[in-house]
UniProtKB/TrEMBL annotation:
One of its GO terms (biological process) is galactose metabolic process. GO terms for cellular component: cytosol. This is UDP-glucose 4-epimerase. It comes from the Bacteria. Keywords: Carbohydrate metabolism, Isomerase, NAD. CDD domains: UDP_G4E_1_SDR_e.
Amino acid sequence: MKKQILVTGGTGYIGSHTVVELQEAGFEVVIIDNLSNSNIEVLDAIKKITGQSPGFEKLDLACKKSTADFFEKYNKIEAIIHFAAYKAVGESVQKPLDYYQNNLNSLMNLLENMKRHQIQHLVFSSSCTVYGQPDKLPVTESTPRKPAESPYGNTKAICEDILRDFSNVNPEINCVALRYFNPIGAHPSALIGELPLGVPNNLVPFITQTAAGIRKELSVFGNDYNTPDGTAIRDYINVVDLSQAHVVSINRLIEGKHKANYEFFNIGTGNGFSVMQLVKTFIEVNKVNLPYKITDRRAGDIEKIWADTSYANSELGWKAQKSIEETLQSAWEWEKNVRNLN
């Protein structure tokens, strides 16, 4: 019998790719999503790719009663991957209370029900934002966390603290936090990808929408950082590689291979690319025109960060495989497909 995994935020960008990888690895998936930043049509795309329809419930995890009712209905869940959260750095600076209410309450409601229904395994979607601007690069898992540069980043740090404290007093519950660097790209089928509602907050969808003529020009936030070309540096990881790290983590927990009941891993490529490098690579590999302008720095952004992934590579047996060129090509194929530009 297939093991049932709950994926919260499963119609979102990373969630949908992870659902595909889970189904292809032989798991049965149930999705919770409130569709605040995703589309219900994603379910059809997942079925086209895998031949299977995941279960789906539309609900808000920040609502205690709705969450409790869900777990009464679904009583065969073996493990949870928790993506559902507000995630825009800039917006979180403007709307801090929304971010604290949504991101913290949804996790606490989940944990409460895990305890009540004896669900032992959770993989949490964390972020490299918990490191702030590190003193030393690359970032390892022993790099000290710093005060976050944004309320969004702070919610991820607080959620990690909640997981650590909760698993400490409930040793039967095992949690893995995956600290993502910058997920980009799309599934090679071009059937799912990053499609934010409204104006994109992330760089690559803004690039692809500008190339598609939906946005007039790309804004590059700041060219006076202490980096070789003055633009901010990030570790950009292909979303399929990232999704596979979740499958590996779920298996680690279910098979009892974890070494503590709260673990955390850096999930990136180990390479830093600047914003301008990314823009120029996108233009080169896709042979498109991409108008852009330099604007002021954006509140909450850090200067440079990239991962040391050796611990995740050795401990999880996982490694990012896809090149930046292949990843940027997949992002453009997805954009063309969704806009009917092929």
